[in-house]
Structure to design on (548 residues):
């Protein structure tokens, strides 16, 4: 007999103690009662356990209800806790707001206190500053009153040295009271100080005036005069003292070198500079102690001498015929004198400006102080040079001379260019102004005349009857080489003059016309060579043509 199949299956599928299997179906949103019952009672025999299943379901229902009640209680407790937390938070926020308001009120109170304290400090600071200024002003006023009183005593006692040391201090104190001139007492005190200074300057001038006689000889106390000069330093009295001394010393110079006398002519200009050197030696030995070193009285005397000499020479050259030799010699002596003065008084040029070598302070160079008088009359020198070159070109034309076989150029060209270099050297030592630009034009004109009058004139005329035609051809080649050599030398000479001449005059320097004349001479030489060769070959070519 076969086994009953129902006996092989479990009579009832019991849920585990945790109820997880049933919970998985009961909690599902797609729960099916029929499937659930079929799952609990899979066979007919399992219906015997329906009471157990009902009991289990009842237990399960009871557990679910308990869980629901527990969750509800927990949710109720959580709501109460949240309400309590919100209330506590509100209370804390209220307390915080109260504290912030209190802090803000305290901050405002502190700010007002700090502002009040700051205002008090500022007021005290202003008071301190004003008090300090008032104290300092009163102290300076006391010093000024005392200084003016001492200056008055020194003036009455002629204590020039003490007065000179006191004057700078009083001047500084007076500058400090420039803003207080509205106060009558200060204004009166300032006027008194200025009057004392003027009075001292006038007394100083009188001391110097008494210290020299009419011939400019020192007859007073040099030390007293030195102290007196210190009292008028930086005032108009200083200028008066300088004018007085220079006039006394130059009075003899004007008397000796009167315009129109032979001694004042250009050929005697060196005697003028010798006179000044003697006066400067006398100043250094006897008169220098009477004047402060800062006044540079020796330099001032030399500068006044230069201006007077310039005026004398200008008038002399304007009223007399000028000899070129005397002009150039006088100008050379004058340029040497100007350079010696710059060296003697320590004047040098740095970065294009004249300064004192010892201190670097600005200075006025002596260069041009006298030589500028010669500039309008350098045309005489230029005319002399032009006449010299014209005579030289005429001599080269009339006396060709013997050419050196070792040279490839005419000897006359080297002589002419040598004279150019010597003339330029002499002019550069005399002037780099308009005279040098005019000399460049003379050079260019002389080269043009040389090309036309000497080179072209020296070209041989070669024909079939010319004797020694090869020598004639050599002569034509020599002329062509000479013109080319002169053209190259002219370019170099032009560049050298441009480098030496004053900047604004450089555009006037040009040798274009002379180069054109030299190139024309070269063309003429080549034409003579071609014509000569053609003339020499013509008989032979004619014989070849007539040959049978």
């Amino acid at each position: 007999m076969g086994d009953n199949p129902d006996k092989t299956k479990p009579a009832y599928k019991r849920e585990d103690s945790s109820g997880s299997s049933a919970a998985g179906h009961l909690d599902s949103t797609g729960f099916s009662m029929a499937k659930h019952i079929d799952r609990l009672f899979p066979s007919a025999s399992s219906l015997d356990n329906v009471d157990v299943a009902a009991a289990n379901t009842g237990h399960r229902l009871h557990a679910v209800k308990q869980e629901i009640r527990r969750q509800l209680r927990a949710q109720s407790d959580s709501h109460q806790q949240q309400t309590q937390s919100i209330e506590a938070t509100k209370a804390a926020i209220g307390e915080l707001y109260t504290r912030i308001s209190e802090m803000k009120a305290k901050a405002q109170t502190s700010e007002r206190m700090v502002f009040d304290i700051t205002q008090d400090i500022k007021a005290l600071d202003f008071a301190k500053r004003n008090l300090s200024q008032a104290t300092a002003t009163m102290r300076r006023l006391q010093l000024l009153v005392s200084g003016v009183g001492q200056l008055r005593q020194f003036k009455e006692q002629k204590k020039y040295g003490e007065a000179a040391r006191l004057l700078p201090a009083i001047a500084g104190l007076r500058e400090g009271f420039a803003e207080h001139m509205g106060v009558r007492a200060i204004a009166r005190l300032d006027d008194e100080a200025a009057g004392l200074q003027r009075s001292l300057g006038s007394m100083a001038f009188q001391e110097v005036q008494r210290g020299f006689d009419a011939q400019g000889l020192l007859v007073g106390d040099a030390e007293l005069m030195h102290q007196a000069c210190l009292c008028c330093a930086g005032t108009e009295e200083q200028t008066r003292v300088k004018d007085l001394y220079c006039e006394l010393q130059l009075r003899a110079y004007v008397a000796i070198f009167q315009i129109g006398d032979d001694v004042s002519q250009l050929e005697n200009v060196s005697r003028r500079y010798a006179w000044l050197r003697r006066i400067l030696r006398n100043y250094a030995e006897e008169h220098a102690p009477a004047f402060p070193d800062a006044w540079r009285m020796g330099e001032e005397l030399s500068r006044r001498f230069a201006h007077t000499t310039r005026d004398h020479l200008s008038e002399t050259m304007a009223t007399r015929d000028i000899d070129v030799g005397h002009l150039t010699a006088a100008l050379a002596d004058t340029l040497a004198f100007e350079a010696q003065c710059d060296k003697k008084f320590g004047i040098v040029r740095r970065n294009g400006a004249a300064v004192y070598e010892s201190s670097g302070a600005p200075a006025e160079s002596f260069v041009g102080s006298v030589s500028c008088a010669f500039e309008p009359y350098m045309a005489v020198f230029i005319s002399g040079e032009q006449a010299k070159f014209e005579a030289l070109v005429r001599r080269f034309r009339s006396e060709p001379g013997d050419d050196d076989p070792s040279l490839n150029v005419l000897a006359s060209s080297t002589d002419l260019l040598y004279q150019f270099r010597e003339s330029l050297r002499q002019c550069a030592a005399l002037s780099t102004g308009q005279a040098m630009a005019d000399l460049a034009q003379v050079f260019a004109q002389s080269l043009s005349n040389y090309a036309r009058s000497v080179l072209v004139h020296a070209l041989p005329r070669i024909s079939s009857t010319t004797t020694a035609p090869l020598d004639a051809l050599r002569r034509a080649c020599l002329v062509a080489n000479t013109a080319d050599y002169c053209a190259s030398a002219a370019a170099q000479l032009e560049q050298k003059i441009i480098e030496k001449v004053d900047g604004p005059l450089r555009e006037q320097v040009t040798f274009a016309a002379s180069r054109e004349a030299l190139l024309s001479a070269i063309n003429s030489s080549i034409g003579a060579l071609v014509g000569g060769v053609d003339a020499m070959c013509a008989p032979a070519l004619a014989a070849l043509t007539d040959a049978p």
